[in-house]
Design a protein that fits this description.
With 374 residues, the protein is α/β, with parallel strands linked by helices. The protein contains 14 helices and 15 strands.
Length: 374
């Protein structure tokens, strides 16, 4: 079944670590949202004409949209597709946006899953990252959303933050589990090029990420998540029973999805396409019928490499029979040959015809994946 992603490229302020496309000015917001609706109407035919399983509002900060603006998208979608009655419909939200009034507004829409960007419950971390909310607002936002009937909530945390001790990291995890959310995404702080954080590290105003600290905190994350009944189904993602993120899982399983908005990516199984990362250029191009995207058709080897890179991160692993069926026997023989060393070192496990990472292998997932590339 197909999946839909909508990129909302606005934020109130810039987080120092973020390299996603966004603008801190709302200039042109109305015209950009109209351009997104036009892009969707122009491209809906690209998806299989089957019921939509997931819709995901990402960003940026989608919680800047009003209920009326969200419903304009739902109205457009429902004219083109049936949406499954149990479809997963996610809105990324900042804690400071989830007021009583806004949550009441959200309940007038089809949004049924919230992804709340908490990142940390330590005030010093939030200030260092230039987050707009406080720790108190984060706690209150989750509880408020639950009180308004949201029963599928995921939160984001970041580990590996300089000066975040292991004990403080465990306190962050304890706070999350105390809130009784259904899903947790936890990411290691990454110093991305051309971000304020990269400049601060370069000029000595911020410490670089300590890899040993990050590894310890990742292991603590896995241990505490398991203790609290969360399954690690992807390296950075943990869920209670029945609450795996269906939208993100579609990416890891190479399912077709349509991406709408500036910088949004789309994939139909063979062709990858990405939109221009500029709000004004995107809007003008849609208004004037100009080209606003680039695309590439993946070779068989590129598709295999993407399969390995994404599936190896998940509990589903790399299925040897699927590899042979989709890519050919040469690729099956190749991955078995290259995986042999990691299997002998217990960084990987072969479970019948599936290759998965062990706990130690997850600490070097990117290196293993690159070594398994064709």
């Amino acid at each position: 079944m197909p999946h839909l992603y909508l990129h909302i490229p606005f934020c109130r302020q810039a987080c120092h670590y973020c390299d996603f496309h966004f603008s801190t000015t709302l200039t042109g917001r109305e015209n950009l949202l109209l351009a997104m609706l036009a892009e969707f109407n122009n491209r809906a035919y690209e998806l299989p004409q089957q019921p939509l399983e997931t819709i995901y509002f990402g960003g940026g900060t989608p919680s800047l949209l009003t209920g009326e603006e969200l419903n304009a998208f739902f109205s457009a979608v429902e004219k083109k597709f049936e949406v499954l009655s149990d479809a997963e419909i996610t809105l990324e939200a900042n804690p400071d946006d989830l007021t009583e009034a806004y949550l009441r507004d959200l309940k007038t829409t089809r949004v049924n899953r919230l992804s709340i960007g908490i990142q940390s419950f330590r005030e010093e971390d939030l200030k260092q990252m230039n987050r707009a909310h406080t720790a108190t607002q984060a706690r209150e936002a989750v509880r408020r959303a639950q009180a308004h009937g949201f029963k599928n909530i995921t939160v984001d945390l970041i580990y590996g933050i300089p000066d975040l001790s292991d004990a403080d990291w465990e306190k962050n995890l304890h706070e999350v589990f105390e809130l009784n959310v259904q899903h947790l995404s936890a990411y290691c702080l990454t110093v991305e090029p051309r971000t304020p954080l990269a400049h601060f590290v370069k000029t000595g105003k911020a410490k670089p990420v300590d890899e040993e600290q990050a590894s310890r905190q990742f292991q603590l994350l896995c241990q505490h998540a398991a203790t609290h009944g969360f399954e690690q189904y992807e390296i950075s993602n943990f869920a209670t029973t029945g609450f795996l993120a269906r939208h993100n899982s579609s990416y890891w399983k190479s399912k077709p999805y349509l991406g709408i908005g500036p910088s949004a990516h789309s994939f139909d199984g063979n062709v990858r396409r990405w939109n221009v990362s500029n709000n004004a250029v995107y809007t003008r191009a849609l208004e004037q019928g100009e080209v606003y995207f680039e695309s590439e058709e993946l070779t068989l080897t590129e598709r295999y490499n993407e399969y390995v890179m994404t599936r190896l991160r998940t509990k589903w692993g790399c299925d040897l029979n699927e590899i042979e069926q989709v890519f050919g026997n040469a690729y099956r023989e190749h991955i078995l040959r290259e995986a042999a060393t990691y299997i002998s070192e217990k960084a990987m496990v072969q479970d019948n015809d599936v290759l998965v990472l062990s706990a130690s292998g997850k600490l070097m997932a990117d290196k293993i994946a690159s070594d398994l590339f064709y």
